[in-house]
Write a structure and sequence with these properties.
This protein is mainly α. It contains twelve helices and no strands.
Length: about 240
């Protein structure tokens, strides 16, 4: 009975959250930032899809997961963070620098988690490759090079999705829209969070587009934005 009640409550929360997401007009809210991000996806969809297809990942789901990051992306800021990662991270690891870099705003620590999870999964044997996880400059330099290209970030994203599908079997039993919400939350909040934790975190407003967060910073729900974009792709 307890399990039945949990499923009913979860269904109600998902339904309520979907209604909330669709009630906010995010394209109007973010204006040109939304439009520019949308245009960027449209221009690169073909090349990105090739990378996602290699891993059997739905390109529209993958693009929705990182769409909020495309809205927030700042090339000026990224150049500074990329320089710090290229220098300090390679020498000292994440203790030296762990900034988000690239269009998809991925941290070196995120890449390390993905690589470890991939090496430990049956996918490594299926695809015939593993990552170098050695704690040295060479391994970290290779990781930075992957993070520094859009191809590399697409592959990290695809692997992230495949790993989440393995570790969260519940994803197979929910709608594509609900998968977008959960995967977007895992991407933004916690790579290793449980299904139950992600179901709770997906409603939280912690995402912002400011370079530096202040007491005036407007906070948004990452999963809502991702779902809003995904829904728009179904009707376009």
């Amino acid at each position: 009975m307890g399990n039945v009640k949990y499923k009913i409550v979860l269904w109600l929360l998902l339904a309520m959250c979907s209604t909330t997401a669709l009630s906010v007009n995010y394209p109007n809210l973010f204006g040109s930032d939304w439009t520019n991000a949308e245009l960027f996806v449209r221009e690169h969809h073909g090349e990105w899809k090739q990378e996602f297809d290699l891993f059997g990942v739905d390109s529209h789901i993958a693009e929705a997961i990182i769409f909020p990051e495309l809205i927030r992306y700042s090339m000026w800021q990224d150049k500074l963070e990329q320089a710090a990662v290229n220098g300090l991270y390679v020498i000292k690891g994440i203790e030296g620098a762990n900034f988000s870099v690239g269009r998809f705003q991925m941290k070196p620590s995120f890449a390390e988690e993905i690589e470890q999870a991939w090496n430990d999964s049956p996918l490594a044997q299926e695809y015939g490759f593993t990552f170098n996880l050695a704690d040295n400059n060479e391994a970290r330099r290779s990781r930075v090079r992957r993070l520094g290209t859009i191809q590399g970030q697409c592959r990290y994203l695809a692997i992230f999705i495949r790993i989440q599908q393995l570790r969260i079997p519940q994803l197979k039993h929910v709608s594509l829209e609900e998968q977008v919400r959960i995967l977007a939350t895992a991407y933004n909040r916690s790579f290793s969070a449980s299904w139950q934790a992600l179901c709770k975190m997906q409603y939280e407003c912690r995402f912002h587009t400011d370079i530096i967060k202040t007491h005036r910073t407007q906070l948004y729900c990452y999963a809502d934005i991702a779902l809003s974009y995904y829904t728009s792709t179904l009707t376009s």
